[in-house]
From TrEMBL:
The protein's name: Dihydrolipoamide acetyltransferase component of pyruvate dehydrogenase complex
Organism expressing this protein natively: Fusarium pseudograminearum (strain CS3096)
Domain Peripheral subunit-binding (PSBD) residues, every copy: 161-198
Biased composition (Low complexity): 132-150
Region (Disordered): 117-157
C-alpha cells in the first residue's frame, strides 16, 4: 500500500522522540542545606568536569560555608553534563549546582543541541563554510599561536587543591592560589608553598628594581590617601552576621580576678603523671588550663541553669520566654588562619578533664586544618573565649546568638600578694570577664555563678567531688 508523504516522513524520522527521552534523563543536583541558616556556600574546588562518569555517593565538589568546609557527593550514577558554578563562586542552597545524565548516553554537545533546537525543526545540515580570503587567512595564521598559548579556562575547573585555611591565607596575601605549585600529596598547596611563593616573588621584585632617576625636589607629605576595597572572607561574613544580630542583646560586664596558684601546681603534677604513663590513642599527653575552666563552668551551670538557657518567644502566648537546656554544650573560641571559629564541646557535664582535653585537642586540630564540620558548630549553650593565649589581660566578650552568657579569660600574670600571716608571696592571677544578657540575667545571678567558677578554679580539688 502506498504511503502518504506525512506518513513517510514520520516513519523515517523517529530521531526527535529518541532525543527527548534522553533529555529527560538529565537530573539537576540541588545543593542541600548543610547547616543552621546557611543560604550560600563558596565552591572551593571541583572533583569532576563535564563528560566525567560519576557513581552514587562519589565526591563532586568541596564547598566552604560560613562555618566549615563540606564535601558534596553525587545522588545519582551517570555522566556530568554541566557545572553551574566555577571554583570561587557562591552557590545558592536549594538551587541546582550540577547536572547529571543518569543514563550517560548523550554527549554534552548533543544535549546542548537538543536544548537549543525545537523538536519540530527539520534536520538540515549546516551550510559549508565559505572560502576565506587571503587577508583573513593571514590574520588567522597570525592569531593561531596566541590561541594555542592561552587556552580558555574550562568552567568549574580548579588547578590547585588546598584546605580552606590555606585559601584564606592566599587571599590575605593577595595571591592567586592557581599560580602556586603545590608540594603536598596530589599537588596540594601547603602553607609553606604560599610563603615560598611570596618570598620568591619579593626576591624577583627586588632584583628588578632600577636605581631611581633624579627628579626635582618635591615638598614632603604630598602622598595621596588611597583606599582599597577587600571582600570579606566566608568566616568574616559569618562573624559580621552573628555580631550584627548580637547588637540586639543588652550586655552587661562582670569581671573578677582568679588565683590560679593551686591549679598551676595541680596541672604540673598531672602532666608529670601523663608523661610517665603509656600513650593512649586520642588521649592528650599534656593538659592545659582550659579543660579545668570548661569543667568549672559546667559545674556552675548545675547551680545556675538559667545561664545555660536561651531567649525565645512562646508560640502559645507570643511572649518572651526562657528555653532551658539539659546538656552543657560549651563553645570554645579559637583563632585560626581563616579567622575566629567557635566549635562546641558537647555534654561537658558527663565528661572528665582528660576527655574534655581530648575533645578540645581534636577540635583545635580540625580548626587549624580548616576541616571542622557543621555538626562541630551546632548546639552551643554558653561560650568560653581564652583571649589570654594571644596576649590580652582584660576583655569585654560579645554574647553569641541563642546564648545568654559568655566568659572571657585574660592572660595569667605573676603578682605579689600577702598571705594570712602578712608575708609577701607570689600568686598567679588571671582576669575572668563575664558578659550576660541583661534582659533575663541580673547582676547578682551572674556574680554568684562567677563566684562558683572562681572557687573551683582556686580550689581545683573540689572538682573531685563533682566529677562524673
Amino acid at each position: 500500500m502506498a504511503m502518504g508523504p506525512r506518513a513517510s516522513l514520520n516513519a523515517s524520522s523517529p530521531r526527535w522522540f529518541s532525543e527527548s527521552r534522553r533529555l529527560m534523563a538529565i537530573k539537576p543536583v540541588v545543593l542541600a542545606d548543610i547547616g543552621e541558616g546557611i543560604v550560600e556556600c563558596e565552591v572551593i574546588q571541583w572533583f569532576v568536569e563535564p563528560g566525567a562518569r560519576v557513581e552514587e555517593f562519589s565526591p563532586l565538589c568541596e564547598v566552604q560555608s560560613d562555618k566549615a568546609s563540606v564535601e558534596i557527593t553525587s545522588r545519582f550514577s551517570g555522566v556530568v553534563k554541566k557545572l553551574h558554578y566555577e571554583a570561587g563562586e557562591m552557590a545558592k542552597v536549594g538551587k541546582p549546582f550540577v547536572d547529571i545524565d543518569i543514563e550517560g548516553e548523550a554527549k554534552a554537545e548533543d544535549v546542548e543541541t537538543i536544548i537549543d533546537q525545537p523538536g519540530d525543526k527539520a534536520d538540515v545540515p549546516p551550510p559549508p563554510p565559505s572560502a576565506p580570503t587571503s587577508s583573513k587567512t593571514e590574520q588567522t595564521q597570525q592569531q593561531t599561536p596566541q590561541a594555542v598559548e592561552t587556552p580558555a579556562k574550562e568552567k568549574g575547573k580548579c588547578a590547585s587543591i588546598a584546605t580552606p585555611a590555606v585559601r584564606h591565607l592566599s587571599k590575605e596575601l593577595k595571591i592567586d592560589i592557581c599560580d602556586v605549585d603545590g608540594t603536598g600529596r596530589d599537588g596540594r598547596v601547603m602553607k609553606e608553598d604560599i610563603y615560598r611563593f611570596v618570598k620568591e616573588r619579593d626576591a624577583k621584585g627586588s632584583a628588578q628594581q632600577i636605581a631611581p632617576t633624579p627628579t626635582p625636589s618635591l615638598p614632603q607629605n604630598t602622598s595621596v590617601q588611597t583606599e582599597t576595597v577587600a571582600p570579606l572572607s566566608s568566616t568574616q561574613l559569618q562573624m559580621f552576621k552573628t555580631m550584627t544580630r548580637s547588637l540586639t542583646i543588652p550586655h552587661f560586664l562582670y569581671a573578677d580576678e582568679v588565683d590560679f596558684s593551686s591549679l598551676v601546681e595541680l596541672r604540673q603534677r598531672l602532666n608529670r603523671v601523663l608523661a610517665k604513663s603509656p600513650s593512649v590513642e586520642g588521649q592528650p599527653s599534656k593538659l592545659s588550663y582550659l579543660p579545668f575552666i570548661i569543667k568549672a563552668v559546667s559545674l556552675s551551670l548545675n547551680k545556675y541553669p538559667m545561664l545555660n538557657a536561651r531567649v525565645d518567644v512562646d508560640p502559645k502566648t507570643s511572649k518572651p520566654c526562657l528555653v532551658h537546656r539539659s546538656q552543657h554544650n560549651i563553645g570554645v573560641a579559637m583563632d585560626t588562619a581563616g579567622g575566629l571559629v567557635v566549635p562546641v564541646i558537647k555534654n561537658v557535664a558527663s565528661l572528665n578533664i582528660l576527655t574534655i582535653a581530648a575533645e578540645l585537642s581534636r577540635l583545635q586540630a580540625l580548626a587549624t586544618q580548616g576541616k571542622l564540620k557543621p555538626a562541630d558548630f551546632q548546639g552551643g549553650t554558653i561560650t568560653v573565649s581564652n583571649i589570654g593565649n594571644v596576649g590580652g589581660t582584660y576583655v569585654s566578650p560579645v554574647i553569641v546568638e541563642r546564648e545568654v552568657a559568655i566568659l572571657g579569660i585574660g592572660r595569667m600574670r605573676t603578682v605579689p600578694a600577702f598571705d594570712e600571716n602578712d608575708n609577701v608571696i607570689k600568686k598567679q592571677i588571671t582576669n575572668f570577664s563575664w558578659s550576660a544578657d541583661h534582659r533575663v540575667i541580673d547582676g547578682a545571678t551572674m556574680a554568684r555563678a562567677a563566684e562558683v567558677v572562681r572557687q573551683i578554679v582556686e580550689e581545683p580539688d573540689l572538682m573531685v567531688m563533682h566529677l562524673k
